[in-house]
Amino acid sequence: MEGLKKLTGYRTHISIIADILDTAREYSYEGHDKGATVTHLIRRANVPHRRLSSLVSELKASGLLKEVPEESRYQISEKGMEFLKTYRQFKGFAEGFGLRV
Amino acid sequence: MEIELAANLVGLAISVFIGRFAYAGYAAVGSPNLLRLTIAFISISAGFVMLASALFAGPGLSVAINTAGLTAQAVGYFFIAMSHGLKSSFDFLPSKRGTALLFIPFTTAPFIIPGNSIEHLVRSISFILLVYVSIETMASYMQTRKSSTLMIGSGLGTLAAAEIVAWYGFIFPGAFALPALLAKVAGFGLMVVPFSRLGLGRVEKVDGV
Fold this sequence. Notes:
The structure holds two protein chains of two kinds.
Chain A: H1 2-8, H2 13-29, H3 38-45, H4 49-61, E1 65-68, E2 73-76, H5 78-96
Antiparallel strand pairs in A: 1-2
Helix pairs in contact in A: 2-3, 2-5
Chain B: H1 2-29, H2 32-54, H3 59-89, H4 94-101, H5 104-108, H6 118-144, H7 147-167, H8 177-192
Helix pairs in contact in B: 1-2, 1-8, 2-3, 3-6, 6-7, 7-8
């Protein structure tokens, strides 16, 4: 576990949010238009279920993620796409300085 | 004087530009590292304003304004170094973080030179901070192999070289002031090159994030 942590480094809150949104994006447009399940999000974001639930609620409340009615699946919203694009731009900027966003 | 003024204004323009971009990033994604970069470049910009103002001040006041400008820039370098320090502290085991602090006294060694002026003390602090930041940035380059990281790391290294050249003026006063200033501006120039590829269009804040 420690070796894995050394390879990947710590993750910031914003990078976990970006992972969740990116997973939702993959299941919103690329032939999987039903949306991502909680399992998909947990696998990619690599966070416990309880933490994921609070993050998903936060993202839904801010309009970045939308829930598919009666399916417990999540899709990225237009606003979420915009956020992801901006995040990637500034991730490149921070990485230029050897830092994480 | 004209060359010095032009160099300081170019440095000011570059640091304002990077600072503005860092602030846009902080406003959009709320990253603490981008906030620290914003503060760093605001401080560096303020330093350039003071260094340019010092050229128009009288002999006595000029030294004080010059030292204040260099101090403002050292504060800026400190904020960049702080971001790297915080990042690296996560890579240490909690039990070894205390051991890392033992290295701090070694960084004060270059300051203990009898008869040294405040300006030279500030320059040596800036030099140490910039060496640390450029090493950390180059270490990141070794991991990511991104050309933008290499350019910024080289820019920071050039800034460190500029500070040590200027510091050497302690021995031969005024002899290396202009080459050091030009090297400093070249360092900032290297740092701004990667931004041409990052897309510097208007960045809009995503509400509610």
